[in-house]
Amino acid sequence: MDLKITTLAERPELADPLWKMAEDWPEFILHDPVGWSLIGRIVADLPEYVLVATDGGTGKVVARAFSVPLALRGRAGGELPDGGWDQVLLWAFSDLRHGKEPDTVSAIEITVDLTAQGKGISGRMLAALRENARARGFTEVVAPVRPNAKHLEPAAHIDEYAHRTREDGLPHDPWLRVHVRAGGVIEKVAHASMTVSGSTAQWREWTGLPFDEEGPVEVPGALVPVHCELARGYGVYVEPNIWVRHTL
């Protein structure tokens, strides 16, 4: 596909179309309170860290990539946080508010329109995200990667899954494989990267499942089971991600 990839700062008219792509995110993911409150602020406050890909023929938005700058090295010697995706979003906007000089870019999301998947666009967006960070003077990109085949094995332990490889030595997971091929190094697991909590009624609405038994519930699209506290009327999902570090 003939792609034109630009920052949102260069093409602010794409701020609305980038939200209208056909997506396949599971409904419950949209209810992470950190993401719900901050993802829109990346578009509003950090447009130079938002990449938008349009089809060169039709002009349709077919992919987006969000990233955020943050001061990572001053926190615990630059160690990547167990809080993963949620934590880097909180740090990035805290740094922005307090005027801290960023030293690292964290990837936040790469989404490809359903009609354009399977054409290698995610890898091209990752390359563009890396190049955008390099052009802004950064020497490192980190990514709390959501492994895109883990939902097929919700009972598999994330620490084993993160380091599972094929015969050629590349990661078993397709999205991790894209990162490693691009030069990324798998560093650690973020065991509590994103947390979604809700009443059992909310979980029934989000998933269409009964949520009528105590204990773990396997939910389509979830990387690990949701813990259901039926007697107390709530469920909690704690998603693990996998930290990948890209030296530019």
Can you describe this structure in just a few lines?
The protein has 248 residues and is α+β, with helices and mostly antiparallel strands. It has helices at residues 33-45, 84-98, 121-135, 158-162, 174-181, 200-207, and strands at residues 3-7, 50-55, 61-70, 104-112, 140-145, 185-199, 215-217, 226-229, 234-247. The chain is globular.
| Chain-averaged pLDDT | 97
- Can you count the helices? 6
Largest sheet: 9 strands, mixed
- Amino- and carboxy-terminal Cα gap: 26 Å
CA radius of gyration is 18 Å
- Helix coverage percent of residues? 25-40%
- Proportion of residues in β-strands: 25-35%
Helix/strand order: EHEEHEHEHHEHEEE
* Global morphology: globular
State the low-pLDDT regions, or none.
none
Kindly name the structural category.
alpha+beta
Q: Compute the number of strand runs.
A: 9
InterPro entries: Acyl_CoA_acyltransferase
Protein name: N-acetyltransferase
Structure explained in plain terms:
- The protein is of the alpha+beta class.
- Helices cover 26% and strands 29% of the residues.
- Strands 1, 2, 3, 4, 5, 6, 7, 8 and 9 form a nine-stranded mixed β-sheet that branches.
- Strand 2 (50-55) and strand 3 form a beta hairpin.
- Helix 1 (33-45) packs across helix 2 (84-98).
What would the keywords be for this entry?
N-acetyltransferase, alpha+beta, 248 residues, single chain, Acyl_CoA_acyltransferase
